[in-house]
């Protein structure tokens, strides 16, 4: 199938109507040149995974300091109510992790469930996985300060390698009052974390400069890819959820990332508003062993083509500052 063709329901009508509901049941192809780009500003909700201990710590760094800088930066940009998805493993033994969560919530941010210890659903049973979700709850209840913590982010974005397992966990989540925090935009920001800590330890400024440049380049590339995937999957752009991690390096890069998103036309909103869009109620009902964004699930289940893209510089990241 050629990439020059978009597959969608009623793409021309949707482009004219903006973000209004569309019947995804009708599939037909329209040439790419007939697609009208989004007139309104795209929207994005930032979310942070693996709180409060994403990535390694450089000497002298604390989890509380990272959470403070990150929340302050979000507030300085008028981005509020941002969800951080918590793995509570190790938290009871670590006052620094506890303090990080307290600060995050005290500064107006939210917390949600990311399981207790970050297991892979594809290699776990549904019942064991559901116990992992439940094990995270006491910490969420304790630290959320009355806010709604019933939002769940699947670790590795693995939502079930079989349809049966997918449905089992989804039914459990629904029965326990959860919403699934889906993802549309993701650029593997956490893969810059270890190289950054290595370069910091070596005081390798050239290495850090390359990390900063490649991080932004990669972010820009995968945000374009996500927007294009939406056009292929749904015939239009949809309100977005961007997956980030609460690492030291993403915290450092956040001002530049926010600026780049603004230059691309994005406006910031929160997860709850984004997921009111009808797209998020659609279930691709597919087994997806490797995990992926909501868009990846739709493209795969419908055998739709992926846009071409420049992959992240994995080898350079792995060898830098060794
Ligand atoms: Zn995670």
Major beta sheet summary: 6 strands, parallel
CATH level-four homologous superfamily name: Glycoside hydrolase/deacetylase
Strand percentage lies at 5-15%
Helix proportion: 40-55%
What can you tell me about this protein's structure?
It is globular and about 50 Å long. The strands form three sheets. Strands 3, 4, 5, 8, 9 and 10 form a six-stranded parallel sheet that branches. A two-stranded antiparallel ribbon has the order 1-2. A two-stranded parallel sheet has the order 6-7. Strand 4, helix 3 and strand 5 form a beta-alpha-beta unit. The N terminus is likely disordered. The chain is 43% helix and 12% strand. The longest helix is centred in the last third of the chain and has 30 residues. The protein is of the alpha/beta class and 322 residues long. Bound molecules: zinc ion.
Short characterization:
The protein is an alpha/beta fold and 322 residues long. It is built from eleven helices and ten strands. α2 packs parallel to α3.
Which helices and strands, and how do they pair?
Layout: E1 5-8, H1 11-17, E2 28-31, E3 43-51, H2 63-76, E4 83-86, H3 95-106, E5 110-113, H4 126-143, E6 151-152, H5 163-175, E7 179-180, E8 185-186, H6 193-202, H7 205-234, E9 240-245, H8 248-263, E10 267-268, H9 271-274, H10 294-301, H11 314-319
Parallel strand pairs: 3-4, 3-9, 3-10, 4-5, 6-7, 8-9
Antiparallel strand pairs: 1-2
This protein binds zinc ion.
Residues 49-50, 114, 118, 155 line the site of zinc ion.
């Amino acid at each position: 199938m050629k990439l020059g063709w978009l597959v969608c329901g009623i793409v021309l009508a949707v482009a004219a109507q903006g973000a209004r509901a569309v019947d995804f049941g009708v599939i037909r192809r329209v040439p790419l040149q007939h697609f009208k780009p989004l007139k309104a500003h795209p929207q994005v909700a930032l979310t942070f995974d693996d709180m409060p201990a994403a990535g390694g710590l450089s000497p002298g760094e604390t989890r509380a300091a990272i959470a403070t800088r990150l929340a302050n930066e979000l507030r300085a940009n008028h981005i509020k109510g941002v969800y951080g998805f918590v793995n509570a493993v190790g938290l009871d033994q670590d006052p620094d992790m506890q303090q990080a969560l307290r600060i995050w919530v005290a500064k107006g941010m939210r917390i949600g469930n990311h399981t207790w210890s970050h297991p892979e659903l594809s290699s776990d049973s549904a019942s064991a996985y559901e116990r992992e979700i439940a094990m995270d709850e006491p910490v969420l209840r304790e630290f959320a300060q009355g806010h709604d913590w019933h939002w769940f982010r699947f670790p590795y974005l693995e939502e079930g390698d079989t349809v049966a397992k997918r449905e089992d966990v989804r039914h459990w989540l629904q029965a326990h009052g959860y919403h699934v925090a889906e993802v549309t935009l993701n650029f593997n920001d956490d893969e810059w974390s270890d190289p950054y800590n290595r370069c910091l330890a070596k005081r390798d400024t050239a290495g850090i400069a390359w990390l900063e440049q490649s991080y932004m380049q990669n972010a820009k590339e995968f945000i374009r890819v996500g927007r294009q995937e939406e056009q292929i999957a749904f015939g239009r752009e949809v309100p977005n959820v961007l997956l980030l991690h609460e690492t030291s390096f993403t915290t450092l890069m956040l001002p530049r990332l926010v600026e780049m998103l603004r230059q691309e036309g994005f406006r910031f909103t929160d997860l709850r508003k984004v997921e009111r869009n009808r797209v998020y109620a659609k279930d691709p009902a597919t087994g997806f062993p490797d995990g992926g964004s909501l868009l990846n699930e739709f493209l795969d289940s419908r055998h739709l083509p992926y846009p071409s893209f420049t992959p992240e510089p994995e080898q350079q990241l792995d060898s830098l500052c060794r």
